Each structure stands twice: as structure tokens, then as C-alpha cells.
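Pinned message: reference record for Regulator of nucleoside diphosphate kinase
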Amino acid sequence: MKTEQLVITKKEYDLLLNHLKLSSRLSDFNKNKLHNELKTAKVVSKQDLPEDAIVIDALVTIRDVESKQEFTFHLVAPEQANMKLNKLSVLAPIGIALLGYTSGALVDWEMPNGVKKFEVVKVGQVAPEKNEVA
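Predicted structure (C-alpha cells):
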């Protein structure tokens, strides 16, 4: 399985590394995938982050490759998560899976119902204080 290079800030890198070390909820598949992604991750300053990189406060649209179903959500810190408002925690399984990817990426991640493949369709940044697309 080819591992695409994550492009993330130090904040997101540390969050993922900490989650990898402390989470007993990750499957072996996901632990290995995240470990390999972090080994090759490109850590950049916020100013050097590509506009379409998935980070905290990104507005993300993904497509399940098999079912073709699309999902759009605002990726947020865990304490801001609210599914009624489509605010998904960065520590939710799909949040962990997508952090650091950019538009067009294909992401494999083991979900409760098996390994799924998602395509990152669109990424926009949300202004945290206004919660609107920047």
C-alpha cells in the first residue's frame, strides 16, 4: 500500500503522534498506517501550509469510493464537535484518517465496518472565530 505524504503543522503532527502513542482504540491496520504516515510527514509552518491541506478548522468534502456517497463536515477540536452542526472531532476515526491530506488524495482507513477508501473532493479553510469559509 502506497503511503501519501501528509502535509501538516507541528500542532497537528503532535496531535497525531500523541493519539498514536495513547490510543488503544486504533486497529493494528490504522496504527501501522498512521505510524508510516508520520514517518514521512512534511511538517510546515502555518504560512507554508497548502490551502487545500486538511487541518483543524478545515471544511472537508470526501467521497466514499465504493458507494460514491459524499460527506461534508467542519473538522474541529474534540471539545467543539457537534454532529448536528456537521462539526466532526479531529479525533474521530475519519478525522484522524484525513488530517494532513490534500484535495485529490485517496485515503484508506479501517472503519468499524471494514477498510474504506475515501477520496478528498474539496478542502476549504474555516475562520475559527467566525465559522465561515475563508
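Pinned by admin. Summary line: The chain has one domain: 7-133.
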